[in-house]
Design a protein that fits this description.
Sodium/glucose cotransporter, mainly alpha, globular
């Protein structure tokens, strides 16, 4: 390990120490009860709510996955995805947050998403709760795997160490931290990590642009690649049989003719915004804020962070292709462009702190994913269905065992160092968006929604994600759209149809709905 690597390591250790201190500070309070551990006793302020919601929502995907897409094939895919996410963020905070905060209290003070859906429909046999918990376990395990891939790629490139060993080290750290501090520690550290992430993005884009010769130079270089800097066209890297981009005799990366980027492709990428309505990690923040009146300033804070972060992340990928045109010649390798820019543009000690931005994003996401998945198993399945008289200590024990099992499965999924973070996240995102998004909207805003519709919507949405991704999309053409869009629509249809052909909700359920609508 050379002196630069040592400096980078020192900076990252200092950051990790700060994260651990936060965990220790909040551990005692978090472990007083499962309510504190899973939802922080509904005590979050507007700044922590906003920053923690967006920091772990974006994860390492923001610093590696999104810039990697822009670096690999240009502006269109990355930009339309970012626009969809920004729109989805705004409307989720605007129309869902306040009513969910109010309804979760009315629905027997629900502290998890499966709790809320189950209590919302006053079910006795807990089918909705069990199904919701199982889907959370499935999709969050995939999400956690994407975070572990990020850790592995980061440390492997920085220190020249084996990918698998570094991925496992990162996973162990995240697991220990999650077990230690729970929701409060996670939210408090996410606030700090959200600041680190946006500072890291702005610093790198500023220095990188100057190093490339200014904004004009970046734009001119990008225009030389067919379709690279267009909203309605996309660059096509020329690849060999192994998927590696070819380089010409002059050492320049080779591209084919641009491909058209039509309305269907745009709608497909904008559909990313639909995912927000079903994201447990974001919805829990709405439930955890101490006062619903604080959601408005929290929304403003969140939107400023999201717009700046997404725009800068996309531009980093564009700028990276100008500065390092042949540094990363595979789709998977392209996701390391942020690391390359950081280590080449900054003194080692500062690069270490910027690298902590990636680690911050990864930790803020993976600990949340693990915690929510564990709560689904322990609080909803174990305590809600299997052993209703379980003590709080037993629930916490099952939580920690579940955390370990989920982490082990996620590690197995993440063993392939050629995994593309963007692809892993997109599948899990579509899973949550289609499974819970339509149900959340109908539960909050349509009184006629009943238990049968809720079950059909969840099963239909989740099933269509798998069917479209694994079967229908292989047909190509119009069927090659992002699976979230057709699955979301199908889930909505299932909810409406099954709610209308079965018995309407009871008077008590409709009374709850009207009370929440009236602001009670």
């Amino acid at each position: 390990m050379d002196s630069n690597q040592i400096q980078i390591l020192i900076a990252m250790i200092l950051y990790m120490t700060a994260v651990i201190v936060i965990g220790v500070v909040y551990a005692k309070r978090a472990n007083k009860s499962s309510d504190n551990y899973f939802l922080g006793g509904r005590s979050l302020g507007p700044w922590v709510t906003a920053m923690s919601a967006e920091a772990y929502d974006m994860s390492g995907w923001l610093l590696m996955g999104l810039p990697g897409v822009a670096y690999w094939c240009g502006l269109a895919d990355a930009a339309w995805t970012a626009i969809g996410l920004a729109i989805g963020t705004y409307f989720n905070w605007l129309i869902v947050s306040k009513r969910l905060r109010r309804y979760s209290v009315r629905a027997n003070n629900s502290i998890t998403l499966p709790d809320f859906f189950s209590n919302r429909f006053r079910e006795k046999n807990k089918i909705i709760m069990t199904l919701a918990a199982l889907f959370i376990l499935i999709f969050f395990t995939v999400y956690a795997a994407s975070c572990f891939v990020t850790c592995g790629k980061l440390f492997a490139q920085l220190f020249g160490a084996p990918y698998i060993a570094m991925m496992i080290v990162g996973a162990i750290f995240v697991l220990l931290y999650t077990i230690l501090g729970g929701f409060l520690a996670e939210s408090a550290s996410d606030f700090m990590q959200g600041i680190v992430m946006i500072v890291a993005l702005v610093v790198i884009v500023t220095i990188g642009t100057a190093k490339a010769g200014g904004l004009g130079a970046v734009i001119e270089n990008s225009k030389e690649i067919p379709g690279f800097l267009e909203f309605f066209g996309m660059a096509s890297p020329t690849l060999d049989e192994t998927g590696k981009q070819l380089v010409d005799a002059a050492g320049n990366p080779m591209f084919g003719a641009k491909t058209d980027y039509g309305l269907l492709s745009i709608c497909s990428m904008l559909a990313w915004g639909l995912g927000y309505f079903g994201m447990p990690q974001v919805l829990l923040r709405f439930m955890a804020i101490r006062d619903e009146k604080e959601l408005k300033p929290s929304r403003r804070i969140a939107m400023v962070w999201v717009v700046i972060s997404l725009a800068v992340a996309v531009f980093i990928g564009i700028m990276g292709r100008s500065l390092f045109p042949v540094e990363h010649l595979t789709k998977s390798g392209a996701e390391s462009i942020f690391i390359t820019l950081s280590t080449s543009s900054l003194p080692a000690i500062l690069a270490g702190f910027v690298m902590a931005g990636i680690l911050a994003a990864t930790i803020s996401s993976s600990d949340s994913y693990l915690l929510i998945a564990a709560s689904a198993a322990a609080k909803n399945i174990f305590h809600g269905v299997i052993r209703k008289k379980a003590t709080d200590k037993q629930v916490m024990l099952v939580t920690r065992i579940t955390l370990l099992v989920i982490a082990l499965i996620a590690i197995v999924i993440a063993l392939d160092e050629n995994s593309v973070i963007f692809d892993i996240v997109s599948f899990a995102w579509s899973g949550f968006g289609a499974t819970f998004g339509p149900l959340m909207l109908f539960s909050l805003f349509w009184k006629r929604t009943n238990r049968a519709g809720a079950i059909a919507g969840m099963v239909g949405g989740a099933g269509m994600v798998f069917l479209w991704k694994l079967v229908i999309s292989k047909l190509g053409g119009v069927f090659a759209i992002y699976e979230l869009l057709p699955a979301f629509i199908f889930s909505c249809i299932c909810i409406v149809v099954f709610s209308l052909i079965t018995k309407r909700p009871s008077a008590e359920i409709e009374e709850d709905f009207e009370a929440v609508k009236a602001g009670n």
